[in-house]
Specification:
Blueprint (H helix, E strand, L loop, with lengths): L2 E12 L2 E7 L6 E7 L2 E11 L2 E6 L11 E8 L1 E4 L7 E2 L6 H8 L17 E6 L6 E2 L4 E7 L2 E6 L8 E6 L3 E4 L5 E4 L5 E4 L3 E4 L8 E3 L4 E2 L4 H4 L4 E2 L3 E5 L6 H11 L4 E7 L3 H10 L15 E6 L5 H19 L4 E7 L1 H14 L13 H9 L3 E4 L5 E10 L9 H7 L4 E2 L4 H5 L12 E2 L2 H7 L2 H30 L6 H18 L13 H16 L7 H19 L6 H15 L2
Parallel strand pairs: 8-23, 21-26, 21-27, 22-23, 22-24, 24-26
Antiparallel strand pairs: 1-2, 1-6, 2-5, 3-4, 3-6, 4-5, 7-17, 9-11, 9-14, 10-13, 11-12, 13-15, 15-16, 18-25, 19-20, 25-26, 27-28
Helix pairs in contact: 5-6, 7-8, 11-12, 11-13, 12-13, 12-14, 14-15
Amino acid sequence: MQHAETTGIIVAAQGNLMTVQFDGIVRQNEVVFVASQGRKLKGEVIEISGNEAKVQVFEPTRGVKLGDKVEFDKDLLTVELGPGLLTEVFDGLQNPLEKIAAQAGYFLPIGLYLPPIDRENKWDFTPSAKAGDIVERAYFLGSVPEGKIDHKIMVPFTFVGKGTVVSVAEKGSYTVDNVIATIKDEEGKVHDVTMIQHWPAKFPLRFGQRKLPTEQLVTACRIIDGPFAVAKGGTFATPGPFGAGKTVLQHQISKYADIEVVIVVACGERAGEVVEILKEFPELDDPKGGKLMDRTSIICNTSSMPVAARESSVYVGVTLAEYYRQMGVDTLMLADSTSRWAQALREMSGRLEEIPGEEAFPAYLASRIAELYERAGVLELADGSQGSLTIGGAVSPAGGNFEEPVTLNTLSVVGCFLGLSRARSDARRFPAIDPLISWSKYSDRFYENGDDIIKWRIDQIKIAQKFITESDEIGKKMSVVGEEGISMIDMVTYLKGEFYDACFLQQNAFDTVDSATMMDRQNEQLTLVMNILNKKFSFADRDIARSYFLDLTDKFIQWHYTPHKTDLYNEKKSEIKNLIEGA
């Protein structure tokens, strides 16, 4: 790695925040290396004042002392991009953790940095460009197979203006460092192109025309696909207290969503929870074949790791996701949790002695959150294809308080709010997404651009959601005056709302069949649910009404556990129809 001539020395320290006195030219977000005890610790310039720079160090700073030398790199904090990113587990600086562990043993050493992408592995390259083609940055030159992904090799993102392809490698096997093309720029300079690219993590990677998300992201989770739909290329947040099921919900979405690549960022979660992710993800079967890890990258930074690396992990993850979107791939990035990321921002802001905002979070918290979610979106590429990046962030508000700054600022920018409730999780109603507080801004877009089935579905869901609201109000009244204090009509409305909740909004993530419900099956279920909600019942007394809906709910749930389009499936469906018609 080449270093700039600018050097400096440490003149003050506060935790992992160093004050460095330097001679030369330094720029914001420049990478530095602190030389201490024979190691070089990576850091980043976050503030410059005169000939002094504030540097956040990404490693534990034990042993660093005043007067230690600091080398300033020419580059910003960059992400290495190329084939071989999938199936890997990285830390917040994109170090491959498994390779570091294999080299260094059980305890990860300080100051050891390995290339994120294997330099020795060979990839089967197929050219798509030819000599004489006029290209710009991000144009496709060829591709290599990476699992199920057709990994595009592109003109470097740093290439300026138009260029002419001088040569392209023939079809064959190459390492990522081999030159696979040469391009002459407008000034006549010839550039060698390899499969490796670098991009600053904190700058959006987006070359193409940005489009409005209008296509639904099918997650196979009924409560999301129904009332709180997410757009492909949109944004959503899942705030919830500890134990409400955020991680399981993210696993389900990443496994069954109509997505080709998944980037999971564990930014600041407890080490035990991250260990669960690392153990479970490689073992999850992909419904599309193989293992889910084959199309997944994990960025891992636990709460016990330095806060500076926790902050960078989110940017590394979103840059990886943008890279695959740039190939025309539908990508999903899940951040768990953005609350810990915000806490890292708060800690660094405090050390910088910045004027604090609400609850001591930095005054720029809202803009940082908005900048992250704004990197989602649908991108139309130069060849006419489209790629999408959907960003979902888990939020962990202390005590489940949705009025705290991180949750409020997140809800102001995302397009879908999936609020997890402690009361619902305690009542064993999973997913514990509260239908009374959650919302989606995307349904109207699907309605305007959808076919007749989509419009029918949205209309029916809106009707069904009214029963949830009315049922909740009646339930509160019953808790005061009892069942005898409400009319029979209200009692039936209450039971209908409970039925819709239990039989459509709830889902068993651990059942092999009910864990994922595709849209055609969801539409069948919704049709029968609406037949019940729209039916006018005349029960003799409340006990008969309650018994009827309990029986109906039981039959529906058993139907959910039955494989689709089998004889048993059709038989149970007929039983439900007969029960509805006979009431």
